[in-house]
């Protein structure tokens, strides 16, 4: 989205959906085309929910600030990487289908939860109603602000979203459930830890008998490294479930899901 488009989130405009649709026709990458189409879809829905316009204005303001101030890789490429249907955001990845496919609401019910590298925190916000407490963190302050806006809007006061890296995060006490979703290594080169160090940190953050919920990168990005990651997990956890996910968008499908219980 361009800065000049922010005005469309101040007052609903009947011409804005066409402008967003045309933007998708004249962009080159598949991700940017999907972003433009989803932004068009989101904006069309705002015609029926104009009360969400101030929230969308605030969140899109943060996206523009991120584009101007954040010099690392933008996973959403100017749009929202994650979706949150509770506030009318489609996103590039379908958060609702991820939660359902991994049965996260059941896994976190009444428990304390840590989400590593939470991006905009939309997944943390979506599961908050089921959990006792959710802490998510990301290094991008603009994404964290977006998540905080969403959490405040829906009244998810048991969600805490922090600006930090996993290397610097100091948990006051271990959690019942640790969510590791495609963060064991990253393509923006902001993860400095080895896989061994990363899983060791996950182990420290998980209560004895607690759960590690793991999602891999897509196969084309994970490459042949998954067996090594699995071996690292098995040093500290018993893997009780492993399967390939088939849900949501092309960015969701084909990832490997593992559920593992920390040994005492």
Describe this structure in words.
Helix content is 39%, strand content 18%. The chain has a seven-stranded mixed beta sheet with strand order 3-2-1-4-5-7-6. The protein is of the alpha/beta class and 264 residues long. It has helices spanning 16-25, 30-46, 53-69, 95-101, 104-108, 122-127, 141-154, 195-205, 219-222, 226-236; strands spanning 112-116, 133-138, 159-163, 175-181, 206-215, 237-244, 256-262.
Detail the topology: elements first, then pairings.
Blueprint (H helix, E strand, L loop, with lengths): L15 H10 L4 H17 L6 H17 L25 H7 L2 H5 L3 E5 L5 H6 L5 E6 L2 H14 L4 E5 L11 E7 L13 H11 E10 L3 H4 L3 H11 E8 L11 E7 L2
Distance between the termini: 49 Å
Instruction: Catalogue the unreliable spans.
Output: none
Largest sheet: 7 strands, mixed
How many H/I helical runs? 10
Radius of gyration: 18 Å
Helical residue percent band: 25-40%
Question: Taking strands numbered 1, 2, ... along the chain, how are they ordered across the largest sheet?
Answer: 3-2-1-4-5-7-6
Share of residues in strands: 15-25%
Number of strands: 7
What's the pLDDT, averaged over the residues? Answer: 93
What shape does the CA trace take? globular
SSE ordering: HHHHHEHEHEEHEHHEE
Sheet/helix structural class:
alpha/beta
């Amino acid at each position: 989205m361009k800065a000049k488009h922010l005005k469309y989130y101040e007052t609903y405009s009947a011409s804005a959906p066409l402008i967003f649709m045309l933007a998708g026709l004249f962009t080159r990458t598949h991700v940017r085309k999907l972003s433009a189409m989803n932004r068009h879809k989101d904006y069309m829905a705002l015609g029926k929910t104009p009360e969400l316009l101030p929230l969308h204005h605030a969140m899109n303001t943060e996206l523009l600030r991120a584009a101007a101030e954040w010099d690392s890789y933008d996973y959403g490429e100017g749009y929202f990487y994650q979706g949150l249907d509770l506030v009318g955001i489609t996103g590039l990845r379908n958060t609702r289908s991820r939660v359902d496919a991994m049965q996260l609401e059941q896994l976190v019910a009444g428990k304390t939860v840590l989400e590593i590298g939470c991006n905009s925190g939309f997944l943390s916000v979506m599961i908050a109603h089921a959990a006792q407490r959710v802490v998510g963190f990301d290094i991008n302050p603009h994404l964290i602000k977006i998540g905080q806006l969403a959490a405040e809007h829906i009244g998810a006061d048991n969600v805490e979203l922090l600006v930090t890296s996993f290397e610097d995060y100091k948990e006051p006490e271990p959690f019942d459930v640790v969510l590791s979703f495609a963060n064991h290594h990253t393509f923006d080169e902001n993860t400095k830890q080895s896989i061994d160090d990363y899983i060791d940190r996950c182990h420290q953050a998980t209560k004895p008998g607690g759960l590690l919920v793991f999602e891999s990168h897509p196969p084309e990005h994970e490459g042949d490294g998954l067996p090594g990651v699995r071996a690292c997990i098995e040093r500290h956890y018993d893997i009780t479930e492993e399967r390939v996910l088939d849900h949501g968008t092309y960015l969701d499908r084909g990832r490997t899901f593992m559920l593992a219980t920390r040994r005492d």
